[in-house]
Amino acid sequence: MTLHVHFPLQFDGRGRTRDDDEALWIRGLIEQVLFTMPGERVMRPDFGSGLRELVFAPNSPELAATTQFLVQSALQQWMADLITVERVEISAIDASLSVNINYAIRRTGNRYQETFLQETAQGGGI
Fold first, then answer.
1. Domains of the chain
2. Alpha helices, DSSP H only, in the chain?
């Protein structure tokens, strides 16, 4: 059995590192790719998607298209061995971006759809 450490790191009721099933573990990895800024990790300065850098850009169709490109590229670069990205949809809704990702886990073939929200500057940013 492979241990998949929960993201963010937590401890279970026994005081041991909490683990997740593969689907939750992969969702956590996707979240790390999306919300890590390039340059944030010392030993991997190109890791991340740049999504958080777009927080202060005005919400627009251009921002949604840029975000879609960044997300798709980052997931293909960093997660290609674990998932097949089937679709990335970005919706600009009021003062936030909705990032909807359809993917399949390569090992099992199971398909998932996850949605992540990122507020833009019009919504006050982070």
1. 50-123 (3.10.450.40)
2. 22-35, 61-79
Structure tokens that stand for 21 in this block = 């099933």
Geometric angle at alpha carbon 3, from 30 and 26, rounded to 5°: 15
Task: Provide DSSP, 68-93.
Answer: HHHHHHHHHHHHTTTEEEEEEEEEEE
Kindly report the pTM of this predicted structure: 0.77
Strand pairing category for 83-93 and 96-105 = antiparallel
- Residue type (1 letter), 99: V
Residue 64 main-chain phi, psi, to 5 deg: -65, -40
82 CB-side CA count, 13 A = 16
B/e letters for 97-119, b = 16+ CB within 10 Å, e = fewer, are bebebebebeeeeeeeeeebebe
Question: In sequence order, what are the beta bridge partners of 98?
Answer: 91, 117
Report pLDDT digits (tens) over 12-70: 788 777 777 788 889 989 999 998 888 898 899 999 887 777 766 677 777 778 888 88
